Amino acid sequence: MLEVRNVSLYYGGICAVNDMSLEVAEGEIVGLIGTNGAGKTSLFNVITGFARASSGTVRFLGRDVTGYSGPRIAQAGMLRTFQTPVGFPKMTVMENMLVFSRADAAARPSIFRGASPARAVLEEAMEFLAIFGLAARAGDWVQDLAAPELKMLEFARAMMAHPKMLLLDEPAAGVNPALQGNLIEHIGALRRRGVTFLVVDHNLRFIRDICDRAYAMADGRLIASGPTGDVLNNPDVIRLYLGGGAGEEAA
Amino acid sequence: MEGILLFAISIGTLAAIYGMVTLALNLETGTGPLWDLGIVSFFGIGAYAYVILTAAPAEGHQHYLYGFGLPMWLGVIGAALAGAVAAWFIGLPSLRLRKEYFLIVTLAFAEVLRQLYINEDWLTNGVAGIYGLEQPLRGLVEARQYTYVLFALAICGLLAVWALTRMISLSAFGRACKALRENEALAITAGIDPRRTSMVLYVLAGAFTAVAGVFYVWYNTLVVPGQFSSDLTFFVWTALIIGGVGSSRGALFGAFIFILLHDSLRFLQVSGETAVTLTSLRTALIGLLLILILRFRPNGIFPETRVVFKLPDRAKAAEGAKRKGLA
Questions:
Q1: For a tag site, which of A22, A79, A114, B32 has the least CB within 10 Å?
Q2: Residues of A in contact with B200 (CB under 8 A)
Q3: Any transmembrane segments, and where (chain B) (predicted)?
Q4: What band does B325 get if pLDDT is binned at 50, 70 and 90?
């Protein structure tokens, strides 16, 4: 589904991503790990059109999407989240959902359409909000949501776009263990609905629990790849995280 | 007594014209992400385009080159188009910039345009301006009653701009503009193109403001470059901040309260010396109101309100989710 081939990204003289390649097959959940500054988010930015690769190619669903803008990538069915959960603060939860809906996207070219969203669209949005425990907040401004609710809203609104692939940037960051369990369940449910995932996170336990395969990065380069367990037990990866110690459990 | 009424109606007409511009600015800044400090550009472009299209050819003492003498309704359409095209041209370079830089560039463009009105005599008759312009429906009533006719026309124009800007801000396109206002990066992940969306919004605001410029010509029966200084932009911003950014009601209220404070003192019959003092006083009054508003109601008299939809039943939604195997 997603093929990244020999992608490099330079910011002036600094190499953020160095000849990085990865693949994600349909229905997979793939992890991308590495310490701060390893280049994970930079790679995310290249894949999702937020940064232009200095070299290399990105293919999505068989199409070369290298150099596509962020909106074009999103329209092609690849959505991303951000390290800090964000929303449109001074819009209601329902408006946040509608902005991501296909119905809104189709109505946008006309400046007057979409003031009264179709019943089916509102019902679909409410169903997704019910799944993520936000139905009661549908009419509230997003600026009034608590951080865990905002995290859930990220998933709920992404579903409105019926994405083929979701790129999650540190979904478990700042999340308590109970909510992490929730996240894992939701990601599993979305996978059963046909969504493919690429997940960046520092929380190796979280990565181990949800990912089929993983890639590890350091200094912008790939240092390990394969089944998640193998990558997490890779001596280079252990050295990277623990500075020479051993044991994934400690992570 | 009739004098007071006529004055009030005249002030009301001016407030309605400012109201149109404030609504257009609210569309850009309240609904969308555009901090436009050059909205007077389109006001001036609309006014001059209308005059050039509808005025009779220049006579001896005037020097503008054109004067097509077209019907007024064509002039209004032409003004709206000119405003839209001007917005497109100004938007091409300036919408590439971030918020604060966009603000500076639009302010600069407004000043460039004012200099153009002053210096391009062949087109605008320079600082002397173009005057003796006709007003719509003028022949229908006697001169004294015309103030009421113009007021009614301005209110119709205001209602039209209010309805259109409201429809736009509530539409899917309006939601995309609000999304850009709130968080551009996130809006991009929703497939919203920031530049294209902002350009459409800017062009629409340009067209609405240009139409308001036509009403301003009807109100004054002349057009001179001095009418289109950046003071007007700041007045409109002040009105919007007083009323409430992001609220149509606030934009309208702000425009009327601003004009009331700014122009009502003109009615007082005082000596020349006192008049100068009062002129300074009105600016101080508006400044004081602005400070009080920012201190005690930072979101304006009528802050932006939530958009309410008739939401489906929550229990049904939960059932629906289960039925589809989502929950």
A1: A22
A2: 111
A3: 6-27, 34-53, 65-89, 146-165, 199-219, 234-262, 274-294
A4: low
Say yes or no: B163 contacts chain A, CB-CB below 8 A.
Answer: no
| Chain A, window 27-86: residues with a beta carbon less than 8 angstroms from a chain B beta carbon | 48-50, 69-71, 74-75, 79-82, 86
> Most A CBs within 10 Å: which of B28, B181, B189, B247, as the mutation test of the A interface?
B189
Mutation target to probe the A interface, by most A beta carbons within 10 A, among B175, B178, B299 is B175
Percent of chain B with pLDDT over 70: 96
Q: Is B168 on the interface with A (CB under 8 A)?
A: yes
- How far apart (Å, rounded) are the C-alpha atoms in residues A202 and A36? 9
Beta bridge partners of A166: A79, A197
Q: Give residue-wise pLDDT tens across range A224-243.
A: 899 998 888 888 888 887 77
Q: How far apart are CA B30 and CA B166, in angstroms?
A: 11
Q: How far is CA A200 from the centre of its chain?
A: 7
Query: How far, in Å, CA of A231 to CA of B321, rounded?
Result: 37
Distance from CA of A110 to the nearest CA of B (A): 7
Nearest CB among A90, A100, A111 relative to B190 is that of: A100
Residues of B in contact with A92 (CB under 8 A): 306-307
Look at residue A232 and tell me if it is in a domain. Answer: yes
- For B171, the closest of A99, A113, A161 (CB atoms) is A113
Q: Is residue A250 part of a domain?
A: no
Give the domain range for residue A107: 88-159
Contact B31, B168 (CB under 8 A): yes
Residue A183: its pLDDT value, please? 85
Q: Is A251 within a domain? A: no
Which residues form the domain of B272?
A: 1-324
What CATH number should be reported for the domain holding residue A186?
3.40.50.300
Per-residue pLDDT at A245 exceeds 70: no
List pLDDT tens digits, range B264-319: 777 677 777 887 887 778 888 888 888 998 899 999 999 999 999 988 888 888 88
Tell me what pLDDT residue B18 has: 96
Report pLDDT for B181: 96
Structure-token pair, residue A139: 């009419």
CB-closest option in B172, B179, B197 to A107: B172
Number of structural domains in chain B: 1
Q: Residues A41, B185: contact at Cβ < 8 Å?
A: no
Whether B204 has its CB under 8 Å from any CB of chain A: the answer is yes
The predicted model gives B130-137 an average pLDDT of 88
Using alpha carbons, select from A163, A167, A159 the residue that is nearest to residue B327. Answer: A159
- pTM value? 0.90
Q: Which pLDDT does position B327 carry in this prediction?
A: 56
Helices (H) and strands (E) in chain A, counts: 10, 10
Check CB contact of B323 with chain A, cutoff 8 Å.
no
CATH of the domain at B39: 1.10.3470
Rounded to whole angstroms, the Cα distance separating A108 from A87 reads: 20
Give the separation between CA A77 and CA A70, rounded to whole angstroms. Answer: 11
